[in-house]
Sequence to fold (296 residues):
Amino acid sequence: MLEFRTPEISDMAWVRNAMRASGEQACEYCFGNLYIWSRVYKNMIADFNGILLARDCTEKSSYLYPCGTGDKKSAVEELIRFSEAEGDGPLEMYCLTAKSRAELDSLFPGKFSFVEERAYFDYIYNCEDLIDLAGRKYHSKRNHITYFKNNFDWAYEKITHENLAECYEMNRKWEKLHAGENDAALDDELDAIRRGFIKFEELGFVGGLLRRDGEVIAYTFGEEINSEVFCVHAEKAYSDIRGAYPMINQQFCEHELFSYKYINREDDTGDEGLRKAKLSYNPAIILPKYRAVLKG
Fold:
């Protein structure tokens, strides 16, 4: 029987190796994401003959499509048995891309139905576009950045152990300003970000911050999915400061992410405002994701 357990920092190396072996670009294929959100989503992991299995236990348990090298058919068969034994009913797996969907369907022809989950499509951008912001489609972004540069005494810094606490304090203030909008979700996010800040260096996170008159007014951080793709996990700025959001985005890419081809800025969770904001940066790829459900 599989033994699922809470992911720990000591699991980072083998989990990342398994995730990268799958060759996926989705934000779920980041150990840091799995770790910092594990208390919120009750994420658990298991090693099945070198293949990573991950379980989301928030409501009805569902599982990440097996990743790594090895016998994936046997891994899925083991998940089917485990799901039935746990009383979860027919196996459900989340975050299947077109690639993994095709692979599953070839391993189990006609055995799974697939549901498109638009709220969890990832927005992936050309890094060069986010740095240069060239052309008419980025005209408004350039205007906001120009205003910020011309009207404020500002500075960009890479996040280090010396300024990490200032970012967390800025995030606490940001959360208070947005209190009442969706308190449960904000509390969950604060918990995940706190876990990320506590283990920032151990997780290999890379981040940047923006100052105005010496005060931190924006920050962002994330981690590498693979040598071509970087995933941004968090980005916060005071929305009443014109240009703060596009400025932290552009500066972070210019200073820290220039060696990557693509930047994955994750999904929009079905929020229309967030969707509009992500589309405004003209993604090169909108990555579809599916939920697979065992028939019968």
